[in-house]
Amino acid sequence: MFRWFLVIFLAVIVFSAALPWLEKFGVGKLPGDVRFTLFGKTIFLPFASTVLLSLVVFLVARFF
Fold it and tell me: Which parts of the chain span the membrane according to its record (predicted)?
């Protein structure tokens, strides 16, 4: 269980870093992606986009 938690945590960090580039393709605006402002900082939690990108990476890895 710890391994999955670590993988998801790292995926969210990588996705958040790549978000400005991915927003050009419409990723990050899916239903299930949460964006809110708290104390002047915008916090973004890309749940649906992370699942979608993980599925794509899984399918690509499965074929190779």
Answer: 44-63
